[in-house]
């Protein structure tokens, strides 16, 4: 691994230009990758009952943003118990606006299967494979031994990543309270744990959560998901029917009836 990183550093410097700034930048990137791969992620064991309810995503890793949608707006997520996913399993039904803070609303459902202390496999509608959902930090005042929080208002923020710290999601109960009380604390933690800096792809990128946001209710998110699934099923059904018709003799007749009649007359 060290040899590979050394070769990569030499090749990168030669490509960018051999000056002090380039060398420093590349060294920082290589060092950041080495730290990520060489250290394990400590997770926080949080009982599912403390996670339930309404959350807002405040930050997302740069690499998680869609290439064509570099920003999302006014995200809201509802954490709900789901016994189908096993002990401490739960689901997240989320919605957010695209294009602008007043743009169209998109919805997704994510199902969580607990596989370890603070560790889940996340199954989502937008991917065909599960992803890691690791709770690596929460607060304020959460005790990982007693599994309780000293704050009377309960947990107010969650920091989610994966085993290699490539992804990042930061959730808050209340956006305004988060910015006023916990934003600095969370960003200090993220910087200390290697999020951002020269390793740009896991840099915390803020999600717009202004006071002018209009977040859909839990019932509205559910209704939108049902409608979305119905529309997708109809499109799939229509596509299948078209495929069946297009491969049939009847389709040939519709396209060129004279040709088919001439062929039948010759038989």
TrEMBL record:
SUPFAM superfamilies: Lipocalins. Residues 1-15 form the signal peptide. It comes from the Eukaryota. InterPro entries: Calycin, Lipocalin_dom_nem. Keywords: Signal. Residues 32-195 form the Lipocalin domain. Pfam families: Lipocalin_10. The keyword Signal applies. This is Lipocalin domain-containing protein. It comes from Mesorhabditis belari.
């Amino acid at each position: 691994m060290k040899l590979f990183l050394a070769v990569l550093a030499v090749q990168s410097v030669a490509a960018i230009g051999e000056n002090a700034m380039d060398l420093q930048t590349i060294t920082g990137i290589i060092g950041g990758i080495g730290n990520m791969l060489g250290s394990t992620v400590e997770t926080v064991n949080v009982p599912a009952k403390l996670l339930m309810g309404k959350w807002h995503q405040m930050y997302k890793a740069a690499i998680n943003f869609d290439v064509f949608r570099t920003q999302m707006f006014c995200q809201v997520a509802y954490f709900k118990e789901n016994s189908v996913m096993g002990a401490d399993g739960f689901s997240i039904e989320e919605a957010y606006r695209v294009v602008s803070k007043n743009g169209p609303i998109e919805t997704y459902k994510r199902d969580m299967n607990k596989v370890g202390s603070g560790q889940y496999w996340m199954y989502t509608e937008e991917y065909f494979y599960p992803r890691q959902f690791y709770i690596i930090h929460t607060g304020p005042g959460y005790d990982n031994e007693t599994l309780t929080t000293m704050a009377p208002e309960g947990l107010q923020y969650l920091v989610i990543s994966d085993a290699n710290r490539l992804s990042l999601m930061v959730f808050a109960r209340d956006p305004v309270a988060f910015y006023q009380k916990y934003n600095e604390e969370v960003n200090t933690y993220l910087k200390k744990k290697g999020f951002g800096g020269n390793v740009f792809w896991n840099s915390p990128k803020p999600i717009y959560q202004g006071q002018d946001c209009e977040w859909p209710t839990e019932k509205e998110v559910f209704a939108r998901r049902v409608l979305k699934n119905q529309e997708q099923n109809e499109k799939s059904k229509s596509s299948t029917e078209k495929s069946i018709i297009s491969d049939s003799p009847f389709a040939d007749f519709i396209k060129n009836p004279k040709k088919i009649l001439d062929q039948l007359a010759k038989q």
